[in-house]
């Protein structure tokens, strides 16, 4: 995923369109992110063991396609591209060409091994 925790993102669609916030959690399998201050919902929790029920407010996840990373130089939404420098994989803003903080992990492909019978 091109977006990571603590990135500042812009909400492109939905009820919170035009707002921005920081990513607190990423749900990789669902392709969703939780953004602080955006998509606030309420949940009713039933009381247990003599305790009264309550209403909990939390920030629900948003699909990754509905957010865009904010460029650190221009403070506008941008796309991300990757560039390799040696063994590092850097995230670069398409809008300004600035390097975005945080380095990506480089995953090595498993080399194919041939079974040699003696």
Distance between the amino and carboxyl termini: 44 Å
Give the structural class.
Answer: mainly beta
Mean pLDDT: 86
Number of helices: 0
Tell me, briefly, the overall form. elongated
What is the number of independent domains?
2
What does this structure look like?
The chain folds into two domains: 1-70, SH3 type barrels (Roll), CATH 2.30.30; 74-106, no CATH class. Helix content is 0%, strand content 46%. It is built from no helices and eleven strands. It is elongated and about 60 Å long. It has strands at 8-11, 20-27, 32-35, 40-45, 54-59, 62-63, 67-70, 77-78, 80-85, 88-93, 99-104. The protein has 118 residues and is an all-beta fold. The mean pLDDT is 86. It has a six-stranded antiparallel β-sheet with strand order 6-3-2-1-7-8, with no helix packed on it.
Task: Please sum up the structure shown.
With 118 residues, the chain is mostly beta strands. Helices cover 0% and strands 46% of the residues. It folds into 2 domains: 1-70, SH3 type barrels, CATH 2.30.30.30; 74-106, no CATH class.
């Amino acid at each position: 995923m091109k977006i990571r925790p603590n990135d500042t993102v812009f909400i492109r669609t939905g009820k919170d369109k035009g707002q921005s916030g920081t990513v607190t959690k990423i749900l990789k399998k669902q392709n969703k992110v939780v953004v602080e201050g955006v998509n606030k919902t309420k949940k009713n929790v039933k009381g247990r063991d003599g305790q009264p029920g309550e209403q909990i407010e939390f920030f629900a996840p948003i699909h990754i396609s509905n957010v865009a990373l904010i460029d650190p130089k221009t403070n506008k939404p941008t796309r991300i591209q990757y560039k390799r420098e040696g063994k590092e994989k850097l995230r670069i803003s398409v809008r300004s060409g600035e390097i975005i903080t945080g380095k990506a992990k480089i995953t090595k492909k498993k080399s194919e091994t041939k079974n040699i019978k003696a």
